[in-house]
Amino acid sequence: MPVNRRRLKSRLLLLGLAAGLAWGCAPSTDSRVVARSSDFVVVSAGSKTTLRSLARAYLGDESLYQIIADFNDVSRVRGGQELVIPLKPANRAAVYPNGYQVVPILTYHRFSPKGQGCDKLAVDARSFAKQLAYLRDNHYSVITFSQLADFIEGKAAIPPKSVILTIDDGYRSAYDVAYPVLRRYGQKATIFVYSDFIGAGAGLTWAQMKEMVASRLIDIQPHSKTHSDLTIRLEGESEKAYTERIREEVRHPSQAIERHLGLPIHTFSYPYGAENNAVLAIVEAAGFRLGTTVTRGSNPSFAHPLALRRTQIYCDDDIKIFAKRLDVFKNVALR
């Protein structure tokens, strides 16, 4: 982590000729480029420049704005302010002498309208809105599983306070209750569906999922075919028959999602969070980059990609409990 950003900026400017720094206008913002190298760009902010617009222009993703904020120790941009933007994060694994970054994956199942009684797995709309507002107001970045996969694979950095939102099973309340709240706050979520439930009485329909996917806020990924425990071998079932049944549990929802929604398949959610070596091998062979359990906890860059931890959010979790679920850094003395 940089300890003196003003000194770094001065050194960049002084070493401009040696480093081959370029001068010019900033793309897609009203800021002005003061200096640029292959590793950094120094900009002078315009009156309409924001951290998000800078992240979109230089890092290719506005959700990475917190990287710029943390590097410059700022929470907002003032006109005329000079900022240093790191173009190549030197620490993609986010491991530091005092610990390492971790990513919480929050799990929801059902949602209820305002004012209804507490059903353990049904979070009401008002509570869900308060939780999304908390994420926004406290500068958390809701990222996607594709971003998390790149982080784990060492391909890209993610914002320092990253979190992922997931909704399991594919209940209709994800569309009726959660989706309007997600739209209001502009937050992304992944819904894991098991294909036998789609179109059932309480289940989502393909039309509803298409509408949500079109918003670019919602991703749909597989949660098996029947929602059975994939680690349990049926009585009298041969090893070959068991393996083929698990392959079908993985293959059927994946093909259905690709066929109906045209989405790439990358993350598998194990029913009940249950997995074993045989299940992991089948999921890996099917081409999944990630897999999720329901073991509570957050995930570092060195997490097992096919056995990611998730934390369940319950209807009686108040905002203080919710905040405690957002573990984004593990303090450990590494030297």
Describe the structure.
With 335 residues, the protein is of the alpha/beta class. It folds into two domains: 82 residues, no CATH class; 233 residues, TIM Barrel (Alpha-Beta Barrel), CATH 3.20.20. The protein is globular. About 4% of the residues have low confidence.
Main attributes of the structure:
TIM Barrel; 2 domains; four-stranded antiparallel beta sheet
Element-by-element helix/strand order = HHEEEHHEEEEEEHEHEHEHEHEHEEEHE
CATH homologous group name of the largest domain: Glycoside hydrolase/deacetylase
Poorly predicted ranges (pLDDT <50, ≥5 residues)? Answer: 14-26
Number of helices: 11
Helix content: 25-40%
Helix/strand-derived category reads alpha/beta
Main β-sheet, in a few words? Answer: 7 strands, mixed
Query: Would you report the number of β strands?
Result: 18
CATH architecture of the largest domain: Alpha-Beta Barrel
Q: Kindly report how far apart the N and C termini lie.
A: 16 Å
Tally of discrete structural domains: 2
Which band does the percent of strand residues land in?
15-25%
CATH topology of the largest domain: TIM Barrel
Q: How would the global form be characterised?
A: globular
CATH class of the largest domain: Alpha Beta
Output the radius of gyration. Answer: 22 Å
> What is the mean predicted local confidence, pLDDT?
90
